[in-house]
Design a protein that fits this description.
Blueprint lengths: L13 H4 L4 H7 L21 H4 L6 E3 L2 H8 L18 E10 L5 E3 L8 E4 L11 E5 L10 E6 L6 E4 L6 E4 L12 E6 L2 E6 L5 E4 L5 E5 L10 E6 L23 E5 L4 E7 L2 E7 L5 E10 L2 E8 L5 E9 L2 E7 L5 E4 L28 E5 L4 E6 L9 E6 L5 E10 L2 E8 L5 E9 L2 E7 L6 E4 L18 H4 L2 E14 L7 E14 L7 E3 L8 E5 L3 E11 L5 E11 L6 E14 L4 E9 L5 E13 L1
């Protein structure tokens, strides 16, 4: 075979010295007679692909779209419009090795039943089963724009072919003609990253799970399924390569303006260099909090403070796809979108109910109070004397049976003390705070109630001695009802197109009996033998499992492990792990929430939000 590509590949050729025509570049990617799917292949191969394309065995170079366009514009041999012409009469573009972006392997022939497979790890040697000659047959009779054919360099009588009723791509001893749809393909792409569409069944080529090439994809707009990297052999390098310009500094992202939270509130963002400030407002315009931090790339790390109660917290935010997302930390919203300025913004915070000063004791707590879960409580408070108890709270059941007594002392708006069960003499510590007219539990041993409100309807009859037939309800609580709800959110990163995302929620309820002694009782919502699995785009999959246990006081603990995989048919390689650890401890009557973020170096990520509720069963 004559070397028809010598002049075409000459470095002095106008193909490489002239800028490609924009208009011709656009028409190159449009098939005139069949529907096509435009692929946004505007990126060069990834950095970790390049060493594979430049192995020492032979000099290689990347196929350029301008070269293909120039070749398509050359004149073809004349022939009758009704008869096809042998494909080798088209314009040879040279010899290429072809690597699948899906499994990072090179395509080769010589396999069972003449099937083409992408299974070679190393770049094929010149003249081997993995080197193919590419022909542009666009200007031949029976073909259309962007029509190409491929044949084996080792066996020149064998061409790529898709037979009738068979999606498998073969290297077949069958004469390729420009009007034969089984041996010709439509090509589209840029920078050597190409997608091929069979003219036989109008489907795009991909690598199947058994490594065979299949013309089986209807829509090519998916990650790297249909992308092949074409690298040309034996192209001389230019004698005086032009120096590459210095990389430009990364342009700072513009976050200034108004944003709205996905749950509530409006936020005004101002940046100066790497300094970040975000002021939060309620839906009615009242100032709520201030977040300050530092911008690094597209991430913001900082802390927030509430204007009314001085609560604080930390958070890491990330700007992606026009939105701010919380990657970790504690904030009311998990993401923010740009918004117009609200009309009712107030410059100063207007806290709904002022908090009592820390050094001011509430005037009078005497009287009856009702627990938020069970029982009535009689409070007697005397004048505060430093170092002396001046607070007593007796707890009664709804029927008036004495349950327990709390003895303590006040300091400002807080009460610290110790309670004793009237029936079994169990004791525990507790700290309360007067807040918005209520008593709120801040810390201490597990209790039935977590807050108390004043009431004018106490029990009519009181029994101040312990009735062994009606013990403290908490003493009769032998089981905890636990419910876990988790939401899995996966981002399937795509460097060439838009990201694919998916979200799924799982829920399950367990009942665990409290251990009798000081031990712990273990179980699992989704054990390691039956993990929760969720896959997005048939490529990125998350696995997670958990372990839950309770102690004799009914406190529930949750530990989890999360893993992320990437590959074909949801059975890929491991790309990230959140190692097993305890994430939550939830007291009886409470609900806890924790978010596990798992970003990876591959770009894909998973975020799992766990919500655990703990209810006492009597």
């Amino acid at each position: 075979m004559a070397n028809t590509s010598a002049n075409y590949l000459d470095k002095a050729s106008p193909i490489f010295s002239a800028k490609p025509n924009v208009a011709s570049q656009q028409t190159f990617f449009n098939h005139p007679s069949k529907p096509t799917h435009s692929l946004p292949f505007k990126h060069q191969p990834k950095a970790n692909d390049m060493p594979l394309l430049k192995q020492a065995r032979t000099a290689t170079s990347t196929l350029t779209a301008s070269a293909l366009m120039a070749a398509a514009s050359l004149q073809a041999p004349s022939a009758s419009a009704n008869n096809g012409v042998n494909c080798e009469n088209g314009r040879s573009l040279g010899q290429f090795v072809i690597k699948s972006k899906l499994n990072d392997r090179y395509v080769s022939g010589g396999h069972h039943n003449d099937a083409l497979k992408a299974k070679l790890r190393n770049q094929p040697a010149p003249g081997s089963e993995g080197v193919f000659e590419l022909f542009d047959v666009s200007n031949l009779p029976g073909a259309s724009r962007n029509t190409f054919a491929l044949r084996s360099v080792k066996n020149p009588n064998k061409w790529w072919r898709v037979k009738n009723n068979n999606e498998t791509v073969l290297l077949d001893s069958y004469q390729c003609k420009s009007n034969r749809e089984s041996t010709t393909f439509i090509a589209t792409g840029l920078g050597g990253q190409m997608a091929l569409q069979s003219r036989k069944n109008d489907k795009w080529l991909k690598v199947n799970n058994d490594e065979r090439l299949k013309a089986s994809v209807d829509n090519p707009n998916r990650r790297d399924k249909t992308i092949f990297l074409f690298s040309q052999l034996n192209q001389p390098a230019p004698p005086n390569p032009q120096p590459q310009p210095d990389p430009q500094p990364e342009q700072p992202i513009n976050l200034n303006g108004w944003w709205r939270g996905d749950r509530s509130g409006y936020y005004s963002i101002q940046t100066s260099g790497s300094n970040f400030q975000m002021k939060g407002f309620s839906n009615n315009g009242a100032a709520l909090n201030l977040f300050t931090g530092t911008i690094t790339g597209n991430r913001i790390t900082g802390s927030w403070k509430n204007f009314c109660d001085n609560r604080t917290g930390n958070a890491v935010l990330e700007f992606s796809n026009g939105q701010l997302r919380r990657m970790s930390g504690s904030t009311a919203n998990s993401q923010w979108s740009r918004s117009a300025r609200p009309s009712n913004v107030q410059a100063n915070p207007t806290c709904s109910t002022p908090q009592p000063p820390q050094d001011q004791t509430p005037k009078n707590l005497n009287g009856w109070w009702k627990g938020n879960n069970n029982g009535f409580y009689d409070i007697l408070q005397t004048q505060e004397i430093p170092g002396q108890n001046n607070f007593r709270m007796r707890g009664y059941s709804n029927s008036g049976q004495l349950l327990n007594t709390l003895i303590g002392r006040t300091s400002g708006n807080r009460i610290t003390g110790r309670w004793t069960n009237a029936c079994d003499q169990r004791t525990g510590n507790i700290t309360l705070e007067v807040r918005n007219g209520k008593l709120v539990k801040l810390s201490g041993s597990p209790t039935i109630n977590t807050s108390w409100s004043t009431t004018n309807n106490p029990p009519r009859a009181l029994k101040d001695s312990c009735n062994q037939g009606n013990p403290d309800p908490s003493n009769r609580a032998i089981k905890q009802v636990l419910r876990l709800t988790k939401t899995v959110y996966i981002v399937d990163h795509d460097s060439l197109s838009r990201n694919e995302t998916g979200q799924r929620t799982f829920s399950k309820t367990l009942q665990l009996q409290r251990p009798e002694n000081n031990g712990e009782r273990f179980s699992a919502f989704f054990p390691s033998s039956n993990k929760t699995r969720f896959c997005v785009d048939r490529e990125v999959r998350s696995d997670d499992w958990d372990k839950v246990w309770i102690d004799r006081n009914g406190n529930a603990n949750l530990g989890v492990e999360v893993k992320l995989y990437e590959g074909t048919s949801c059975r890929g390689r491991l790309i990230g792990t959140y190692m097993y650890r305890k994430i939550l401890t939830v007291a009886p009557g409470q609900t806890g929430r924790y978010e596990v973020p798992l970003p990876t170096n591959e770009g894909s990520s998973v975020r799992v939000t766990y919500t655990l509720s703990n209810r006492t069963a009597r």
